[in-house]
C-alpha cells in the first residue's frame, strides 16, 4: 500500500494506492496517524482520501477509516471531517454493502471533493 | 450429523405483523394466478417450487436455540425462545415420558438466551437429566436461572422443578469430552463475557459463535478467533449489524457484522458461514437483502476461495 499527502488550502488530500485488508490495515492506520494527531492538535480538520487507486478493501480497512473519521469528528464537531473520493466500482459496492456510504461523504471525483470541502474558492479550483 | 435451528433471532423474539402475513398471502395468490390444485401435495409442491422463500416461508422470530442431532442424548446451544418449540416437538414424541438426557451449551446468560427454559416441559418431569454447560462459573449460571425462576419473573420457582438439573463450568481454551464430542470453549467480547464452542465429531467440525464483537483492532486476538474457526465445516456467527452500525452507534454493544464474518471465515478456510442472531428490527425482506449483499461481498473479496453462505432461519436444517 502506498500513501502520498498533499495540502490544498485547508484540505489534506491523501492519495492511497493498493490493497487495504487485514495485512495492510495496520500500515493504513499508521499512515493516517500523523494526520489525525494534527487534527487533534487543531491544525488540519478536513481530510479527503483519494481512493482512485485502491483496488481491494475488506472490513479491516473500513474499520480503520471509520476510526479516523470518528477521531476527526471528535476533535471538531463543526468542521472535523473525513471524506473519500474516486472509489473504484467494486470499492463503491463494498461501501454500499457495509453501509459506509450512509455515514461517510463519498465524492465521485477528487475535484468535486475538494470543491465541496474547501472553504476557499482558491482551494476549490486547484 | 444434522443441525436444526429452533431460534435464530437476536435480543428479543419477534412475530410477523398482520400486514406482513397479508403481504405473503397476497404474493402467493398473485403467483398462483388462478391455478387449480387437486390435492394438498400439489399445493406443497407449488409452494416449494414456485413461491420465493420470502413469501412461502420467512426467517422466523424465535431467539437463539440450535440443536445438534446425534445419538440418543440431545445437544443444544442456548435456550432462547426457540427452546419452547423444541420442547413441544419432544413432548409430541410417543416416548416423551421416558427419561432423557439434554446437554445445553450456553453462550451466556442474557435474557434472550435463557428465556426458553421455563417453557421447556422436561424440566417439570422427574427422571429427565438437564446438563447445562458454560464458560461462566457455575455460580453465575445458577444465579441467572434461579432468578428467572422466581418472583416476579415467573410463577414456578426453581425448587419446584422436577428434573435433575446440573451446571458445569467448562474451562476455556482446552478440550472437553462430552457425549462423544470433542469440545473447545473460547471467550468472546460481549457484555459480561460470552463463550463460543467448537464441536468436533466423526471428522466434522461445527463452531457456534454468537453474541461476540469481533473488532479486528488487535491482530493477535483476531488470529485467536481464526484459529478457533480454522477448517470448520460450519460456523454459526453473530452477524447482527451492518459494519457501519457495528463501528459507530452500536460499538461495544457486543455484536458483529455480516461482512466481518465473511472475512474471518475466509481467513480460517471455513466451508460454510451461517449468519445468525438477526437484528429484531429487520423484516424478511431486509434479511434477504443482507444475505444477497453478503454473498456479493464474498464474491468481491474471496479471490477464488470458496465459502458457502447462508442466513439461518427458524426450522432450517443443515446436514454435514
Can you put this structure into words, describing what you see?
The complex is a heterodimer of chains A (126) and B (320). Chain A has 126 residues and is α/β, with parallel strands linked by helices. Chain A has a single domain, classed as Transcription Regulator spoIIAA, CATH 3.30.750.24. The radius of gyration of chain A is 13 Å and the shape is globular. A 5-stranded mixed beta sheet of chain A has the order 1-2-3-4-5, sandwiched between helices. Chain A contains 5 helices and 5 strands. In chain A, α1 runs parallel beside α2. By secondary structure, chain B is α/β, with parallel strands linked by helices. Helix content of chain B is 31%, strand content 24%. Chain B contains 10 helices and 14 strands. In chain B, the strands form 2 sheets. In chain B, strands 6-5-4-3-2-1-14 form a 7-stranded mixed beta sheet. In chain B, β5, α6 and β6 form a beta-alpha-beta unit. At the A-B interface, α2 and α3 of A face α8, α9 and α10 of B.
Task: Detail the topology: elements first, then pairings.
The complex is a heterodimer of chains A (126) and B (320).
Chain A: E1 2-8, E2 11-20, H1 25-41, E3 46-57, H2 59-75, E4 81-85, H3 89-97, E5 105-107, H4 110-117, H5 121-125
Parallel strand pairs in A: 2-3, 3-4, 4-5
Antiparallel strand pairs in A: 1-2
Chain B: E1 2-7, H1 18-32, H2 40-50, H3 53-56, E2 65-69, E3 74-77, H4 82-91, E4 101-106, H5 111-114, E5 129-134, H6 138-148, E6 164-169, E7 175-178, E8 181-188, E9 194-201, E10 204-209, H7 219-229, E11 234-238, H8 243-247, H9 258-267, E12 272-276, H10 284-301, E13 308-311, E14 317-319
Parallel strand pairs in B: 3-4, 4-5, 5-6, 10-11, 11-12, 12-13
Antiparallel strand pairs in B: 1-2, 1-14, 2-3, 7-8, 8-9, 9-10
Helix pairs in contact in B: 9-10
Amino acid at each position: 500500500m502506498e500513501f502520498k499527502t498533499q495540502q490544498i488550502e485547508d484540505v489534506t488530500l491523501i492519495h492511497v494506492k493498493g490493497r487495504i485488508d487485514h495485512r495492510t490495515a495496520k500500515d493504513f492506520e499508521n499512515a493516517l496517524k500523523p494526520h489525525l494527531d494534527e487534527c487533534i492538535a487543531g491544525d488540519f480538520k478536513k481530510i479527503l482520501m483519494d481512493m482512485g487507486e485502491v483496488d481491494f478493501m475488506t472490513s479491516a480497512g473500513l474499520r480503520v477509516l471509520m476510526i479516523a473519521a470518528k477521531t476527526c469528528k471528535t476533535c471538531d464537531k463543526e468542521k472535523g471531517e473525513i471524506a473519500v473520493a474516486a472509489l473504484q466500482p467494486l470499492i463503491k459496492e463494498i461501501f454500499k454493502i457495509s453501509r459506509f456510504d450512509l455515514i461517510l461523504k463519498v465524492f465521485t471525483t477528487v475535484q468535486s471533493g475538494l470543491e465541496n470541502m474547501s472553504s476557499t474558492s482558491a482551494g476549490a479550483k486547484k | 450429523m444434522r443441525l436444526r435451528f429452533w431460534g435464530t433471532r437476536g435480543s428479543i423474539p419477534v412475530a410477523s405483523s398482520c400486514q406482513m402475513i397479508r403481504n405473503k398471502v397476497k404474493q402467493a395468490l398473485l403467483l398462483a394466478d388462478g391455478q387449480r390444485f387437486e390435492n394438498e401435495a400439489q399445493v406443497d409442491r407449488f409452494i416449494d417450487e414456485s413461491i420465493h422463500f420470502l413469501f412461502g416461508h420467512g426467517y422466523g422470530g424465535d431467539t437463539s436455540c440450535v440443536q445438534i442431532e446425534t445419538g440418543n442424548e440431545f445437544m443444544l446451544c442456548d435456550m432462547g425462545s426457540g427452546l419452547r418449540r423444541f420442547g413441544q416437538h419432544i413432548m409430541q414424541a410417543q416416548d416423551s415420558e421416558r427419561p432423557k438426557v439434554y446437554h445445553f451449551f450456553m453462550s451466556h446468560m442474557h435474557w434472550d438466551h435463557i428465556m426458553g427454559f421455563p417453557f421447556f416441559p422436561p424440566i417439570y418431569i422427574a427422571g429427565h437429566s438437564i446438563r447445562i454447560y458454560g464458560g461462566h462459573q457455575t455460580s453465575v449460571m445458577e444465579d441467572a436461572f434461579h432468578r428467572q425462576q422466581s418472583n416476579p419473573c415467573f410463577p414456578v420457582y426453581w425448587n419446584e422443578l422436577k428434573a435433575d438439573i446440573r451446571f458445569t463450568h467448562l474451562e476455556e481454551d482446552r478440550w472437553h469430552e462430552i457425549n462423544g464430542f470433542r469440545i473447545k470453549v473460547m471467550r468472546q467480547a460481549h457484555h459480561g463475557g460470552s463463550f463460543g464452542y467448537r464441536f468436533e465429531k466423526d471428522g466434522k467440525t461445527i463452531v457456534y459463535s454468537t453474541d461476540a464483537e469481533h473488532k479486528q483492532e488487535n491482530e493477535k486476538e483476531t488470529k485467536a478467533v481464526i484459529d478457533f474457526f480454522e477448517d470448520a465445516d460450519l460456523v454459526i456467527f453473530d452477524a447482527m449489524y451492518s459494519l457501519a452500525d457495528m463501528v459507530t452507534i452500536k460499538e461495544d454493544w457486543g455484536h458483529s457484522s455480516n461482512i466481518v464474518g465473511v472475512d474471518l471465515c475466509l481467513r480460517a478456510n471455513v466451508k460454510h458461514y451461517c449468519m445468525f442472531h438477526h437484528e429484531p428490527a429487520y423484516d424478511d425482506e431486509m434479511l434477504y437483502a443482507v444475505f444477497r449483499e453478503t454473498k456479493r461481498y464474498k464474491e468481491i473479496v474471496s479471490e477464488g476461495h470458496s465459502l458457502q453462505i447462508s442466513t439461518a432461519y427458524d426450522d432450517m436444517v443443515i446436514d454435514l
